[in-house]
Amino acid sequence: MTELNDTIHRVTQRVIEKSRPRRQAYLDLIAREADNRPDRASVSCSNLAHAYAGTPEDQAALVAAKGPNIGIVTSYNDMLSAHQPYGRYPERLKIYAREVGATAQVAGATPAMCDGVTQGQEGMELSLFSRDTIALSTAVALSHAMYDGVALLGICDKIVPGLLMGALRFGHLPCVFVPSGPMPSGIANKEKQKTRQLYAEGKVGRDELLASEMGSYHSPGTCTFYGTANSNQMMMEMMGLHVPGSAFIQPGTKLRQALDRAAMHRTAAMHQDGEDYRPLGKCVDEKAIVNAAIGLLATGGSTNHAIHIPAMARAAGISFDWTDLSELSSAVPLITQVYPNGSGDVNHFHDAGGMGYVIGALLDAGLCHRDILTVSDSDLSKYAQEPGLAEDDTLVWRDVGESGDDTMLRPASNPFKPDGGMRLLEGNLGRACFKSSAVERDRWTVEAPCRVFQTQHDVAEAFKAGELDRDVVVVVRFQGPRANGMPELHKLTPPLGVLQDRGYKVALVTDGRMSGASGKVPAAIHVTPEALAHDGASGPLAKLQDGDIVRVCAATGTLSTTADLDAREAAPDPAPDMGMGRELFASFRLLADGAEQGASPMLAGAGL
C-alpha cells in the first residue's frame, strides 16, 4: 500500500491541530444528542399520533417500532432538471426501506434554485444564501426527532452543501446522499461555447442561441458540464457519502434504481441500535474534508467549492482555509479534463472510468486518505470500483481498469498538469482564488490598467461600446456576500473571452463568484476582504480607480496594484437593491462572514 504524500499528510495534520477545540466541541455535541435522542416508546402518544397520521401504510410498523425510521429530506422541484427525477423517489424509497424492515417518511423539503436560470438576473443575488436557507430547512425537517437515519436528496450547486451543513448539526444520525444522475449528452460543448461567443459579438441572433442552449440542456437530469453540481457529486464520492459509484449513473436506468435501493438499505443498516453505526458527524472528519479538496483539485472542479468546503467543514467543527487548499494544490496533479476544461462531458467521463478511476489513481499514488469512515461497508477502497448489474440484476462492483480515454483521464504519473490548479493570490488588494487549471499558462500573468465596474451589466455595455478593446484588468466590485449576496458573474465570460481571442491581455478581479463553468479567462475571484465596508473599513477594491495598474499573477501568487491606496478615500457603499425578495435577506447579508470562511450568515450567527 502506497504511503500518503508528505504534503497531504502535513496539511491534514495542520487541519487536525487547528480544528482540535471546535472539533471536540462538535463531537461532544453529537454524542450528547445521540444519548438524548427520544425513545419513541416514552414520547407522548399525542406527539406520535401526529407523526404517524400521514403514513397509513407504515402505521403498524411505526407503532411497533420494529425497525429504524428513515427521514427523507428532498429538494424536489420540476423546474430544476437535476431534481425533477426526485418527484417519484419518496414512494420508491419507502418500498426499499420496507425490504429491510425499516420505514421511511418525508421529513421535509428544501428550496432548490438553479444558477443556470438566474444567471445574469436579480434572483442570482439569492443564490449563495439559498445554501444557508437549505441548511436551515434541513434542520427544521430533522427537528421532529422521529428519525434513526436520513436520506438526503440533492445534487446541484448550493443544495448539496446546504443539505450537508444542516445534516451535520444532527451528526449523530447516519446520512446517505442519493443522487439522481446526469441527463444524456446533448450537442458538443465546444459548439455551445462557440454559439455563445458569436451571440456576444452580434453574429448570431437570439433564436440560434436559444436553439443551441436547448440542445445542451434538454431533459431531466443534471447538466452535463463539470460545474458546481457535478463537482458536488465528485466530492460526495471522495468523502464516502454516496453508495460507491452513484454519482454519474443516469436517471431511469436499472442501475440507478439498484443504487437507490442500496442507499436505503445502507441507511437502515447504520442506525444507532444496529451493529454498524456510522453517524454522519464521524464520517465527515478532517480526512474526509481534505479528500473533498483533493478531489476538487485532481478533477479541476468548480471554484465555488473554495467557499463551500470551508463552510461544510465549519459545520462539523473543522477549520479549513485557502492556504490549506493552495498547499494541497501544489501536491495534487490534475488527472481529469472534463468540459469546460476538456471536450467531453460527465457522461464521457463516466464511460472512460469516472470516479472509480479517479479515486483508484489517487489511492495508488498516495494522494488521498483511504482510511475514512464511509457509508459503504468498507473504507474508501470500494469507491475505486464501478457499480454494475449481474445477470440477475443484483448490484455488483467491478475493477475499473485502465483509462478508457487518456484525453480525459490519466494516471497521477502522467497528469495533464503537475498541480491541482487552484492557487491562492495575495497582495495589497487582498486574498483571492485563481483557477489555473482552466487557463493556459501564458495567460497566468496579466499586468495592465484596470477598468472599475460595479455590475456585470456595466461591463457588457462597455464591451459593446468598444471601450475594452485593449489590455485591461476588469474589476467588478461590491459583489461580495455582504454587498449583494455574492452572485455568480456568468455574463462576464463571453465578452472577456472575445477580448482575449482578439489578442488582448485580459484578466478579471472581483469579490463576486465565478463557477467551474467559467474557464479560460484569468480571474482573481472571491477577493476578500470584499469592497463593502465592514466594521468601518472598506476593502482595498473599493479604493481602486480607472487606470490604476493591477497585477494578477498565478505563477507568483500575486494580486496587487502600484496605486497608493492608503492615500485614497473608498468609493461609497452602494445602497442595497430591492425586489425579487432580496430585501428579505438583509439580515443574511449583515451577518455573512468572508468568502474564505465560507460566506455563511448562518454559521457566523451561530458562533461556529
Quick recap:
It contains 22 helices and 14 strands.
Give an account of the 3D structure.
Helix content is 37%, strand content 13%. The chain is of the alpha/beta class. It has 3 domains: 330 residues, no CATH class; 30 residues, no CATH class; 153 residues, IlvD/EDD C-terminal domain-like (Glucose Oxidase, domain 1), CATH 3.50.30. An 8-stranded mixed sheet has the order 7-8-12-11-10-9-13-14. It has a 4-stranded parallel sheet with strand order 2-1-3-4, sandwiched between helices. Strands 5-6 form a two-stranded antiparallel sheet. A hairpin with a 5-residue loop joins strand 5 and strand 6. The radius of gyration is 24 Å and the shape is globular. The mean pLDDT is 94.
Number of beta strands: 14
Strand content: 5-15%
Low-confidence stretches: none
Number of helices: 22
Number of domains: 3
- What is the rounded distance between the termini? 37 Å
Largest sheet: 8 strands, mixed
Pathway: Carbohydrate metabolism; Entner-Doudoroff pathway
EC number: 4.2.1.12
Catalytic activity: 6-phospho-D-gluconate = 2-dehydro-3-deoxy-6-phospho-D-gluconate + H2O
Cofactor: [4Fe-4S] cluster
List the helices and strands and how they pair.
Blueprint (H helix, E strand, L loop, with lengths): L5 H31 L8 H8 L6 H6 L4 E6 L14 H11 L3 E7 L5 H4 L8 H16 L6 E5 L5 H10 L6 E3 L11 H12 L5 H11 L11 H11 L15 H16 L10 H4 L2 H14 L5 H11 L6 H10 L14 H6 L2 H11 L20 E5 L5 E5 L22 E6 L2 E6 L9 E9 L2 H9 L7 E5 L4 H4 L8 H9 L4 E5 L12 E6 L20 E5 L4 E4 L24 H6 L9 H5 L3
Parallel strand pairs: 1-2, 1-3, 3-4, 9-10, 10-11, 11-12
Antiparallel strand pairs: 5-6, 7-8, 8-12, 9-13, 13-14
